[in-house]
Amino acid sequence: MMVIDRSSIGFYIPMTISLVGRSMESNELYENGLSCMFQLSISSEIYDKHLDILGKYVKAEGKIFFGHTGHHKTKALLKVNTISVLT
To answer: Do 13 and 38 meet the contact criterion of CB atoms below 8 Å apart?
Structure first.
């Protein structure tokens, strides 16, 4: 299941994972609990090029980071480098 939110250029995907990351302020490791939803942070270029992926299973690759602004709707986000439809 994917839900599009054009205002934050993101998709949400169900998946459970333990969240451990580094603080942006101190660079110290800390646990941030569990999450079953990830907002995908997608550049406008990728977003406009891949509107055909809605409702399809996809493979997304990128770097995970913790949400830190009001635009971040989930505890963790994936900054997408590549995304493609699985066949």
So the answer is: yes
Q: Are 5 and 42 in contact (CB under 8 A)?
A: no
For residues 22 and 28, the answer to whether their CB atoms sit within 8 Å is: yes
Number of H helices, E strands in the chain: 1, 5
pTM for this model (two decimals): 0.64
Task: Fill in the amino acid letter for 61.
Answer: E
Rounded Cα gap, residues 60 and 63, in angstroms: 10
In the numeric block, the tokens 């977003």 are attached to: 47
Q: Report in angstroms the alpha-carbon separations of 20 from 28, 32, 40, 73, 77.
A: 10, 6, 18, 18, 13
**pLDDT tens across 4-44, in order?**
444 444 555 566 778 888 887 898 888 888 776 778 888 88
